[in-house]
Here is the input.
Amino acid sequence: MKQQKKIHRIYLATDLKSDVHRCSMDLSHRILNVLRIKNNETISIFNNKGQECLSRVSIEEKQVVLNLSKEIKSGINKTKKISLCVSIINMKLMDLIIQKSVELGVTNFIPIYTQRSQYKNVNKKLDHWEKTVIHATEQCGRLDIMKLSHPVSLSEIDNIYHSSSKYLLHQNGDKFKYDDLKSNDITLLVGPEGGLDDLEIDYLETNGWKMKTINVNILRTETACISVLTLLNNYDIFSRRSL
Here is the structure.
């Protein structure tokens, strides 16, 4: 069987109202020189408002003009809001965690400073992480853009996100029960390599966070993030099939 040719997806931060969109020189460079898309090739463009359209590429003096044609209707109906708080660790691993968070449906991603965080100021990485979010969204077929928060301290989390279902992943926690995953608004917190210290754990428990474990082994930060998000995804798939 002949393999279907891949259609590249490109994010545009604009309403798709006009039939023609003239790309910026930066986006034109990416389309032509990074993705190697040719004149008259068809791509898919989407925004953060649930719109996605097929579009034909035209090249006018090194600038790309997109001619919108057929709108693509998504059958995805996202119902669960997932906020993932992650203690800041190695930058390459943070890139991986952010990428996988997009693929696995995280709504809000919150980098947090803890006592054992490897860095105390990562604001200069935000532009890079925003690009990681966009590229991962284009690759995985998702329509909405995961919101990336400015880094915050542990004590600031509850002032930003007010979820009633708040879980701290910890080796000494209880196992997740089926009912724990029912909520449509869940906040998860994953600590750094070496874990949170006792004062941090006491603070979180005092403020309504429940300790949960997902494996008998001690997991690295990136493994814990991927594992718990996969658990939530599998719960949603099973729930929909049971209806």
